[in-house]
Design brief:
Elements lengths: L11 H16 L2 H30 L4 H5 L1 H31 L2 H27 L1 H19 L4 H13 L17 H6 L27 E3 L6 E5 L2 H6 L21 H11 L1 H45 L7
Antiparallel strand pairs: 1-2
Helix pairs in contact: 1-11, 2-4, 2-11, 4-5, 5-11
Length: about 325
């Protein structure tokens, strides 16, 4: 029994709680904690940006989304939103774990980042393997959108007109004006007033081969962007000696020869190096996050062993509360 003035013995659990914080403060690698915190906050900002992009795509699915298909655009929007929330959550988890030196949060962060790295690698590999299939699917979707909905559905028509005007392209593939023949637009614009349900013959001087948005748009010298004013509308739409009436023949300098798929690919290719640098940077950041979290976890384990060892010594020392 202990008298009132005699200090009560401290058990090992109590010693661990009192010793843990100062030992951790002395032994943790501050550089690893700072790097881990910065990586986690960057992940949080990246996740928030992805959520914003997904919401924007969901709210405004015009132009490109209408051409490649609303289902594809919707899937892309939800993918960005879900991935953004997940990355933001992982960022908060890592930041909290680094700040509080919470081993459970750091382990959870490490596991999730490892899974995300693996998924990203597998996704990139599949994209390379199935690149041809993805390209063909995109072309088929664009062709279906143009032949079935162009001229019939207002939003898709406006989307195609905007793309063909600003990218100075026509149809899907290069020299692909023939795709308009037999389309809904062709049946509506070239309808035969004397014979309902049919269209005027292609040899007729009144037959329009392509819409006005396929005509070569003049460049505005002030903005260096297509002005919307075409070079020669009549020559573009009614030219009988070559394109767009024929795949060969006299050159028609009033019509766009380039396909919109190729034009879009060139626009994306303009940013490909920049996007590649971003992707490589993200991969490096994930690797740094993995290494930093591992360093903190190992440090916490070492500190816990030191706490237990020190607590055992205090418990056995004479006058340290032992029996």
């Amino acid at each position: 029994m202990y008298s009132e003035g005699t200090p009560q013995p401290m058990y090992e659990e109590d010693v661990q709680q009192k010793k843990l914080k100062p030992i951790l403060l002395q032994n943790r690698p501050l550089y690893a904690k700072m790097i881990m915190f910065l990586v986690a906050m960057f992940a949080f900002c990246l996740g928030g940006s992805l959520v914003a992009i997904g919401v924007y795509i969901q709210l405004d699915r015009g132009f490109i989304s209408e051409i490649i298909g609303s289902v594809v655009a919707l899937a892309a929007a939800y993918l960005c939103i879900v991935a953004g929330f997940l990355i933001a959550f992982v960022g908060l988890l890592g930041a909290y774990g680094a700040h509080k030196l919470n081993k459970a949060c750091l382990i959870a962060f490490l596991v999730i980042v490892l899974v995300l790295t693996l998924v990203t690698f597998v996704g990139s590999l599949l994209a390379v393997i199935f690149r041809a299939t993805v390209i063909q699917t995109a072309k088929d979707t664009m062709s279906y959108s143009l032949t079935i909905h162009y001229g019939k559905t207002r939003l898709i028509t406006e989307s195609w007109d905007a793309i063909q005007t600003h990218l100075r392209c026509c149809a899907v593939d290069s020299n692909g004006w023939q795709l308009y023949i037999g389309s809904q637009w062709d049946l509506m614009v070239n309808a035969d007033a004397r014979n309902l349900g049919s269209r005027i013959p292609q040899w007729s001087p009144l037959y329009k081969f392509v819409p006005e948005s396929c005509c070569l748009s003049l460049i505005d010298p002030r903005t260096l962007w297509p002005s919307g004013k075409v070079r020669n509308k009549e020559q573009c739409q009614y030219f009988p000696y070559g394109p767009p009436n024929k795949l060969s023949g006299a050159f028609n300098d009033a019509v766009n020869y380039k396909g919109c798929f190729q034009a879009g690919a060139e626009v994306m290719g303009f940013y490909s190096n920049f996007l590649g640098y971003i992707g490589f940077s993200l991969f490096i950041i994930m690797i740094i996050g993995i290494i930093s979290s591992l360093a903190l976890i190992v440090t916490i384990n070492k500190d816990m062993k030191m706490v237990r060892k020190q607590a055992g010594k205090d418990y056995r020392m004479p006058g340290g509360g032992g029996y």
